[in-house]
Inverse folding.
């Protein structure tokens, strides 16, 4: 392994970084943020695009090969698409990905495709317009469905559909979501409901990855071997009879920590080495000073201190919208 790559104290190579470009969102999903939204950061408090580019270059020099941009809702931040286009021109060998609620995709899908986006994750928990409104509080499912169509028409590749599975809410929709994904050429991933927004998470609403698997329709689902680490913590299964694929992300009940290759950066430039930990390394000042050596040292030091497993850390109280999922 080359010296100067991001490797933690447990030998894990950290080559995937998720960057939240905003804490703002045009939805208010009940499991992600409070009804009134989160106190919005001012523009002064968040990294500018040129700061993000400087940070990404530093990460890339340390062996990071993929960046996922997320939020809040990343597409509500003005200038994201030109940023991604410039990013692709400057670092065409680096993969970029986006996680979005899909509501603004109709507008941006074409330009995102031109920006060389490697993969796109769209969050959609239910296909029922009423339930969609209930879970997002203010979202319009029509906009998301139009966004999905636009993404496909624009030729965007590797589109995944992410649904958080919640008992009593959408646990009866697995088959319908699978069919929808298949009809639209998307890969469905079912996600365990994580206890991050304290008011809404309950043990009863939680469905473990194991139970999710037992709920899959149509006979035997066989676990795929290996899979790309870039796929993150999802485990993929294929249906023996139909060849349909599905991903399950069991962040709560499974301990995929031993293969964790990721780091997260908040909109304010706080580097987190574990989703569940409240420890952050503030990078904004170093980045704004354009202190390349200081930044490199800070990244290496934070990587070395990455916790072995989330069960070892003091869990934080941030809403998911502040961490980017
Ligand atoms: N706004 C974008 C979106 O919704 O895709 C990106 C940010 S959002 C925080 C990223 C992902 O986190 C979404 O797929 C969302 O469903 C997921 N998420 C948020 N809160 C969650 C929770 N408590 N448990 C599991 N997943 C959660
Ligand atoms: Fe917004 Fe995404 Fe959180 Fe929903 S899950 S409130 S769309 S950031």
């Amino acid at each position: 392994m080359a010296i100067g790559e991001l490797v933690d104290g447990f030998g894990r190579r950290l080559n995937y970084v998720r960057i939240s470009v905003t804490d703002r969102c045009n939805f208010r999903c009940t499991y992600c943020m409070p009804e009134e939204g989160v106190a919005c950061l001012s523009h002064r408090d968040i990294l500018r695009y040129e700061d993000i580019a400087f940070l990404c270059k530093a990460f890339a020099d340390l062996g990071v090969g993929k960046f996922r941009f997320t939020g809040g809702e990343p597409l509500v931040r003005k200038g994201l698409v030109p940023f991604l286009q410039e990013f692709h021109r400057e670092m065409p060998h680096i993969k970029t990905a986006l996680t979005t609620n899909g509501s603004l995709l109709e507008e941006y899908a074409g330009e995102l495709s031109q920006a060389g986006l490697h993969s796109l994750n769209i969050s959609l928990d239910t296909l029922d317009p009423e339930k969609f409104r209930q879970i997002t509080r203010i979202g319009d499912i029509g906009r998301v469905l139009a966004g999905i169509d636009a993404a496909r028409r624009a030729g965007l590749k590797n589109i995944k559909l992410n649904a958080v599975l919640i008992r009593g809410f959408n646990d009866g929709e697995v088959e319908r979501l699978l069919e929808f994904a298949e009809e639209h050429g998307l890969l469905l991933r079912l996600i365990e409901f994580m206890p991050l927004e304290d008011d809404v998470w309950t043990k009863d609403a939680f469905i473990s990855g194991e139970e999710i698997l037992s709920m899959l329709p149509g006979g035997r689902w066989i676990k795929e071997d290996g899979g790309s680490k870039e796929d993150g913590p999802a485990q993929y299964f294929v249906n023996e009879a139909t060849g349909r694929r599905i991903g399950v992300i069991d962040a709560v009940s499974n301990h995929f920590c031993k293969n964790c290759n990721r780091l997260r950066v908040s909109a304010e430039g706080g580097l987190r080495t574990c989703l569940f930990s409240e420890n952050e390394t503030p990078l904004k000042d170093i980045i704004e000073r354009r202190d390349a050596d200081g930044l490199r040292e800070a990244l290496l030091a934070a990587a070395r201190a990455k916790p072995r497993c989330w069960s070892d850390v003091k869990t934080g109280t941030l809403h998911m919208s502040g961490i980017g999922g």
